[in-house]
Amino acid sequence: MAVVKMQLLSVTGLKKNRKAVLETLQSLGIMEVTTDFIDDEGLKKMETDGQRTTFLKRAESMDEALKILKTYVPEKTGLLDSFAGRKVLNVREYQNFVGQRGLAIEAARNIGKLEREITECKGTLLKDRNQIESLKPWVNLDVPMDFAGTKTTGVLIGTVPGTRTEEEIYAAVYTAFAVEKAKLAEAEKTGNAQNPPEAAFAEAEGKAAGKTGATKTGNAAKATERTQNASFANAEHPVSVEMLFSENDSTGICVLFLKRDAETVAEGLRKIGFARPSQPESAVPAEQISLLEADMEKTEGKIAELTEEIGKYAGERERLRAVSDYYRTRAEKYKFLGTIPQSGEVFFFEGWVPEPQAERVQKLLTEKYDAIVEVEDPPEGMVTPTLLKNNKFSASVEGVLESYGLPQKGRVDPTFVMSIFYVFFFGMMLSDAGYGLVMSFACGIILLKYKRMDTGLRRAISLFFWCGLSTIFWGLMYGGFFGDAIDVIAKTYFGYTGDGILKALWFEPLTNPMVLLIWCLLFGVIHLFMGLALKGYEALRDKDYVSFFADVIAWYMLLIGLILMLLPSDLFASIAGMTFSFPPFVNTLAIVLAIAGAVVILFMAGRTSKNFIIRIALGAYDIYGITSWLSDVLSYSRLLALGLATGVIASVINMMAAMVGGSGFLGPILFIIVFLLGHTLNIGINALGAYVHTNRLQFVEFFGKFYDGGGKKFAPFQTANKYIEIKEEK
Amino acid sequence: MSMGMVFALIGAVLSTALAGIGSAWGVGVAGQAAAGVVSEDPEQFAKVLILQLLPGTQGIYGLLVTFITLSNIGILGGTPITDTNTGLMYLFACLPIAIVGLVSAFHQGKTSVASIGIVAKKPDQFGKAMLFPAMVETYAILALLISILSITNIH
Asked: Which site in A51, A83, A230, A433 is 20 to 30 Å from A396, CA atoms measured?
């Protein structure tokens, strides 16, 4: 239960030992380097950014290669392998890999190259597939799509918008011929001026317009006219229309005509919106499709080949991992190297080392590397990094504390007190022996099986192990084992009709929620008083007796006085159904305590202010803080609410299971299915609720009384291994 | 069946229905935000899932109150209600969790969305991010408590 004291080490070493010193410190990983205090006039810093970037890039290329390997040749991993931690390599293996790091670089490069080729192939496949898609409608065309015609004939291949029939296309073309003819006739009649050209034009237009009506309404007259047009045109201007397809609101056509009619046909088609395909293929569509399909097959074969090629590198994983870590560690070292000032022959740096290790580091550096090492306590007011030291049980909540904020230098470490309440409250909220058993059992197995988990993960899991035990305890107190599972099973399958089998050691919450509520609030008061006590401890340790008296003792007096006044009152008796009667002197004492406490707070809480009026005003405002105490205490009612939630929902699940599984041959199987599904869901959602609300009680109510975090985590200069752990040989 | 039974049943149904609507909405919006974060950074899945689930508890509280009511009014156990007044009492006892459940889940959902934003930008601040939606939930818990205390004390 403590924040580890840090000491400042100032190291001056010979340049020739620089590499060795740095590597030793890095492998020890117990010093956080700081260069804030060195006035580096006349000293130079090495430019290492370039090398560092190179190393990081190499490490990244290995990571990239490993990712590709994972995609194409997945490793067989078990469900729980994420708990396994980093792989252990002994020094000789590691040195081997590092010695031949060229091989790893080569492998990473090849894997990257193969992957790029695969990506390219996939691009080709996609392109081919799109092309086939766009060619498919034209598959009936037996000439190339950009075919322009023969010596005497012209061809137009393309699409018109909308769904058109063959007749409509013919009509469009013939209308064009009719207009053409009218124009010629008009030209002959020039001079007569009886029939202005506009009229002939309008007539032709009228015919063209009529064609739609003709097809749609079957207007006989128009149809005849069209046929006449057709027969006239057919003789002089042979045209052949081939319908290719009609889909997605467009119609594909191929129109064959005499070359001399090219302009007129084009004009007629243009009127109905004819367009050539944007990129006509110079091949017959059907042939082109089969060519593309062959190409796709070939490309797929190539992808398979390349994938197999990548698969050959699966055995290189370990090498890649080791070398990736090697480069990352080296980059870390160069980062450090770039920050330390150096002169011609020597280099300097300073760093924080936990006090217990300071001497060891000093000795090591002095004796082995001829360095000059000075050890000093951190200067007053200096911010030091925070490292916590706790017993095994309490250390498991360090992660939770860290997520709020670590204590700053000189502040009290709340981990120990917090760990006890954390586990206690979590158990109260989940409060089911069966659920606790499942949780502790699962976490216990993981803890036993995977010894080398990351510290953070290990702590989280052991926290849930302890919380599980507490849950079992509270489950037994409340008489919950998967809700009322034992009773339900006994009643459904064994014809049991008596009272509950599993009796609550304390009492069942639902039978008397009010009493349990009072207990919850009491636990809350104890928790909050502990917070206040920690504040008092801090004040005493810093010999700030005024603060101890005014900010801690006065509050204790006020609050205890108020509680003692409340307990014997009628109000409390009617709410809680409990009556307290104290001897008269206690009642007097309560009033005296409350008043004395309030007076001290009124005069002392604002003591930093010199102005007397403001001081009193601040004190009054502080007394008003009593309302926050009230809301804080009431907040602990969640202990009851969440505890009830688990138990009642569990009973609902059991009831549903008994309903579906009460009778028949399949009954027990259905019972088990509903039971397992329901309780899995319930344990999940309630464990989540318990976790969130336990955190809340700690962070908001408890920490609100004394703690504000804000410390910086101790981050020593160390190896940056992501995949492997190197074991020293004995 | 007496009018009282009808009122009590209306209360029971409202608490699951309204609180459930609120939770469905809250978990829904939070889920959309969570999915967005996972599409960018799949490693945050567990964290954003927890944040998504936070507004889901109101629905469970509602179910809880419904169940206690049903097992008191002779539908799943207990003795059937014979007078209208008792039924009305059950109805009003159910209202805190029904109304507060609906509104708090709605707002908790919005807060969860914002907290998921914190996780997206600063995954290491998860502990604090989780706290904001949990603050909203307090009021659902208080409402649940009052509903339960009222129902268990109606005779």
From this structure: A433
